[in-house]
Amino acid sequence: MTTLSLTRPAVDPSLDLEGEIRRLKDELHAVILAHYYQEDEIQDIADFIGDSLALAQYAAKTSAEVIVFCGVHFMAETAKILNPDKQVLLPDLDAGCSLADRCPAPDFAAFLRRHPGHFVVSYINCSAAVKALSDVICTSSNAVKIVQQIPADRPIIFAPDRHLGRWVMKQTGRPMVLWDGFCVVHEQFSQRRIWQLKTQHPRALVIAHPECEEAVLGLADHIGSTSSLLNFVKNSPHDEFIVVTEAGILHQMRKSRPEAKLIPAPPSSGCNCSLCPYMRLNTLEKLYLCMRNRQPEIVVDPEVAARARKAIELMLSWS
Ligand code: 13P
Ligand code: SF4
């Protein structure tokens, strides 16, 4: 005989989740930070929404006792490194990042040994252990500025995103040794499909994140971080945009330009959405549960954190 086991939902569906999250926020003296790629209802309840750099800058100066990070693991880990004495919560501990996953610290250390004497720039989308092996960290919004400040006589290693690295090389004219990593979301946008969209919408401007491949970036009218793309739409006299990045950014774009036509670029798979499978592991229910249970909590080895903090703080001072 088969017995049917009925699992109870983790959260009572009749609960006023938003109300409970606000109540817990006051109780914990917490701040809720969210990246633009989080689902709309998480963005709407957050105290601060930003790109990776703005979130790190906010985390560096917050006086809140608990930081609830609605983003991916490396972002919450950065907040913890900057706030070793604060509790940092992440709604789903499995919310990783393909760039971070494909750059394990032991492999990266071996790569550095094969290229001695290089100045090591790591994109913030990497683990604390990789940050600890780096001289400076960058994000997509300050990568060009950071690389421009490296002494001209130093050869450079850039990791882990090969597309961002290639774009930064073009912008700065500095050759760099690239780690061969990529983002599973941005890698899916194809030049052919963006070209087709452009012919269907000839008035639209193409705006793209620098994690896209070079051929896609070649079609873009504006390239930049999530904040940069949002600001471009906010301030542009144009009213039609093909948006080549994770679709979560559209929420704030729609709020600031409700009359504009925003066309999300489809990935080459043919699916009409481009959502980051890691970012989307966070839900409003998990946000409530992590605040109620005060876990999952981010923990970073203090020695690794101390070395990683130096590289992050150098980025903050060069930004
Ligand atoms: P931003 O630095 O633009 O926020 O990008 C982060 C990210 O993970 C892009 O995929
Ligand atoms: Fe990582 Fe790409 Fe997701 Fe950004 S969109 S968090 S780079 S997997």
- How much of the polypeptide forms β-strand, as a percent range? 5-15%
Helical amount: 40-55%
Strand order of the largest sheet: 2-1-3-4
Uncertain parts: 1-5
User: The CATH topology of the largest domain, please?
Assistant: Rossmann fold
CATH architecture classification of the largest domain: 3-Layer(aba) Sandwich
Give the overall average pLDDT: 95
Secondary-structure-derived class: alpha/beta
Largest beta-sheet details: 4 strands, parallel
- Give the SSE string: HEHEHEHEHHEHEHEHEHEHEHEHEHH
* CATH class value of the largest domain: Alpha Beta
- CATH homologous superfamily heading of the largest domain: NadA-like
The set of bound ligands, ions and cofactors reads: 1,3-dihydroxyacetonephosphate, iron/sulfur cluster
Distance between the termini: 65 Å
Number of helices: 15
